[in-house]
Amino acid sequence: QRKGQTRPWIQPDRLPGLQAVVLETCETPAMALTRLERLLALAIRAITGFFFVLFSLLAPRGAESPRLPPVTNPLLRLSGVELARRIRRGEVSCVEVIQAYIDRIQEVNPQINAMVKDRFSAALQEAVQVDKLVSEEGGDEESLQDRYPLLGVPLTVKEAFALQGMPQASGLVSRKGVVSRNDAAAVALLKRAGAVPLGVTNCSELCMWLESSNRLYGTTNNPYCTERIAGGSSGGEGSILGSGASVIGVGSDIGGSIRMPSFFNGVFGHKPTPGIVPNEGQFPCASGLQDPFLCTGPMCRYAEDLIPMLRVMAGPNANGLDLSAEVDLKQLRFYSMAHDGGALLVSPVDRELVESQRKVIERLEADLGVKVQEVHIPQFKYSFQIWSAMMSAADENGKPPQSFVGLMGDHGKPVWPVWELLKWMMGLSTHTIAAIGKNMLLILTMTPSVNSIL
Questions:
Q1: What pLDDT was estimated at residue 7?
Q2: Which pLDDT score, from 0 to 100, does residue 346 have?
């Protein structure tokens, strides 16, 4: 930037139920890439490019993967809110709805590998009880809506959350026999609101990667192209929602684990303000300084289900949120940030995404008459280092978080990353290369001498 040029600075100002962003100006100069940083960036991209070409050449070549069968049952084209409304009114039975989703899961799951354990028999029994309740209420729709806003709505849950009677391994082979005895706090609130769980869905190993793949359940595929990934760590939820085999789901997010799968699979997700939705009942749980960053949140196929889900999942905290207020989009301020300024450890933003963002800006300005302001935050190029430092930082009492390598050994033997890498190269490791590599990278970036260079 030129001397004296001002730049926006983002300062978070916490408001009830949302994170407000206030833009101010200051005259701190931009942080340009140094010569060493540019050399490191070129080296990293050259190495990753080499392995990309190598893996592309060695990847098995076969026929193009078949597309998922289209959604034909009209019940699968209704939002959760609309399904609950029709069930309360007796226009459709809960058994019909649950069976429609069971049929869809059985139709598509062999291709996408999203649901890793079902509870179909129990779900159908619960659906019978829902229909019995509706019959006994004698058409008192208002009372049913007040007590059970999600009555009879099919629900899927990320396997990292406790769902009574379901596995909770979080992709670790050593936790294969772990079965939940009760429900996670957010899951219990959704069940209390009338939702009917169908089963649990896949995630990345220890919920710490952008692809939902592990040695216990395998890899989850994208419903729009099964040769592509579904994102992570809540990729099983994203995939099953995107395929039309679920309508609402539970995810968690500490570094994009709701937002990325929602984006990858064309569905809707929301990472709430920390502390709004309870995190209790998931593995791994937050420790150290991680707790203010880990959020449990809703994922759904239809946008109109986001607010009703959040209202239920927030429990008593929903009273502090103004979720019923009408929002005038023309009165909002919009900001755009095309990229992070050239981070060393992050891939550059694809041109297609930059172009898509530009089209969104043009649409907002044309339809709403607003001016979208472009934002530049030079420190964003250090986002991975900042995130890594946060993940490894001690809490206010000085207690450090549980190490990632310690989590990898949960319910099993201690894990040594370098030895595990050698085992992986020989096909003997029970861990994914993503988990092994990420653990080694976290150790590397938190070494003071290396971190000072990065």
A1: 34
A2: 78
Catalytic positions are 158, 233, 257
How long is the chain?
454
pLDDT value at residue 443: 66
Task: Write the pLDDT tens digit of every residue in 190-239.
Answer: 999 999 999 999 999 999 999 999 999 999 999 999 999 999 999 999 99
Q: Which residues of the chain have pLDDT under 50?
A: 1-30, 451, 454
Looking at residue 343, its pLDDT comes to 79
What pairing do the DSSP bridges indicate for beta strands 7-15 and 18-26? antiparallel
pLDDT on residue 299: 98
pLDDT at 403: 86
Closest CA to 360 of 368, 376, 305, 266: 368
